[in-house]
Amino acid sequence: MSMTSEIASEPSVSPPPQAESEARAKMTSRGVEVHYGAKRALHGIDVDILQHEVLALIGPSGCGKSTFLRCLNRMNDTIEGCKVTGEMTLDGGNIYDKALDVVQLRARVGMVFQKPNPFPKSIYDNIAYGPRIHGLAGGKEELDGIVQSSLERAGLWEEVKDRLSEPGTGLSGGQQQRLCIARAVAVSPEVILMDEPCSALDPIATAHIEELIDELRVNYTIVIVTHNMQQAARVSQKTAFFHLGDLVEHKETQEIFTNPQDERTQGYITGRYG
Amino acid sequence: MATEHIVKSFDQELDLLKRTIAQMGGLAERQLESAIHSVMRRDSGLASRVVQADSQLDEYENEIDNDAIRMLALRQPLAQDLREIVSALKIASDLERIGDYAANVAKRAIALAQVPVVRPVHTIPRMGRLVQEIIKEVLDAYADRDLDRALAAWSQDEEVDDLYTSLFRETLTYMMEDPRNITPCTHLLFIAKNIERMGDHATNVAETIHFLIEGKPLIEPRPKGDSSSFAVVTPDTVDDQED
User: Looking at this predicted complex, what is its ipTM?
Assistant: First the structure.
């Protein structure tokens, strides 16, 4: 892995006095820049991601929104030539700290991808895999409980409870995506990142996922990348619009979609030439 | 910023919506003008034509409603586009109400033409002209996206309210003087009230234009001059006025 994190793991000093709004910030990003080789993909992003809120990241293809999402659980570490600078924290702790266990970080900050990617294993094992490797379950009974509650949270339990031993890949696309969400939930994450989770799903399956996002928000903090404006408007409380590597506008979702202040935001969400 | 949509037909639909509002507004304005004429010239024929023409305004409103609902469903508009379409719906509804009031004025003109003239009738054309001016100004402001113009018209409505309040007092006085004045004065009072209501709908349009351009509602309270709700005229005050 050639990824180099330039974020110094300085000895932690007492945290700076935080403003009221920052008190609820689950994750923060300060001056985060990402380079892919010589190309600068993100230009100093400052964002607070508030607890129990859904943040939607929108913007044209190549604007940096997925890159930013992948910074949040260090998925960019796996990309050759990718360099992340700036400061990014989870509950005030630097996530690019060299001493930090990335596997643990990704258990706290889970991810759901565009294309449902269940393991080629049974439905049961898809969910049980994470808790097993993280040693979250004491025995078979406890693991059964985690599998059931995860599937219930993902709204899939009723549909699959009688065929847990069947392969996860045999489910429909929408069910597979909910299986992936259940898998993410099974390791008790605090933040769930979703990269276009509905783009491969039909409207009914999409509605299930959106309903699920709203329910999950009670327990988790969610960041979702979507190309579907209406979806961003429906599921999120805050929206951030990215353009050419810049964070152009970040505020209440309702504000962004009824009265955006930046012309680039307006042009993008109304489908005008930018 | 580029103002054209990537999907050209969306621009065409928005243009059509704006044009239909302009046409509907023009008709509403003419309806008011004709209704006032029919009162002043005691022209029952003209009044009947105003009453009949009201259905055209209803048709315009239906057309705008249908277009707007179709665009909401098919385009799923956001931001400026969403405000554009929602504004068209609201303005069409206000213009339709203005038309209804014009038709009501015309109906009363027919009744008024059958009884003797009373003096307060002379306030009517002044009120009518003022409201017509406000309607014209807000429609131009809508077409030109001119917020200042819309707000100027919006604050003019206070004058209409003042005229209405003074006409209210005057007609009460006349009614007290001679019971034979009661029929014409009552019709007159309703005519004035209708005109005053048209002014209110015109200010609604101005407020919609504020939302359309600024993206937020106008919060400043409109200066209100209509104090007729509190007006009391007693026989004593009539005597006072005649002294």
Answer: 0.72
